[in-house]
Amino acid sequence: MVNIPKTRRTFCKKCGKHQPHKATRYKKGKDSLYAQGKRCYDRKQSGYSGQTKSIFQKKDKTTNKIVLRLECVEPNCRSKRTLAVKRCKHFEL
C-alpha cells in the first residue's frame, strides 16, 4: 500500500521556485478514431478475412506504474506536470 499526500511542495518550472502542488492520478485519454495507425488498421480489418494483425500473446504485469499529475496551486500559474512513481498493487492519495 502506497500512501501519497494530496499536496506536496515541489519545484514549479513556470514560477521558478518551490510551490505547493495538488496531486491527482494521471488517466489515459480516449483513443482518437482518426489517428493514422487506427485508420490503417480499420481499413485492413474491413471486408472478408478475420484478424489481420497478430494479437499480443504475452500476459500483463500484475501491477501498474503510478503516474501523478502535479498542478501548481498558485492562482495565476496552474502549470501541470507528471511524475512517475514505482510499481505498486495498492495506491492511495
From TrEMBL:
Q: Which GO terms describe its molecular function?
A: structural constituent of ribosome
Superkingdom in the source lineage:
Eukaryota
Tell me which InterPro entries the record gives.
Ribosomal_eL44, Ribosomal_LSU_eL42, Ribosomal_zn-bd
Pfam families linked: Ribosomal_L44
| BP terms from Gene Ontology | translation
User: Keywords, A to Z?
Assistant: Ribonucleoprotein, Ribosomal protein
Q: Where is the signal peptide?
A: none
Tell me the SUPFAM superfamilies matching this sequence: Zn-binding ribosomal proteins
GO CC terms, sorted: cytosol; ribonucleoprotein complex; ribosome
Concerning its family, UniProt says: Belongs to the eukaryotic ribosomal protein eL42 family.
Q: Give the protein's recorded name.
A: 60S ribosomal protein L36a-like
Q: What is the organism field in this record?
A: Octodon degus (Degu)
Q: Which gene encodes it?
A: LOC111815698
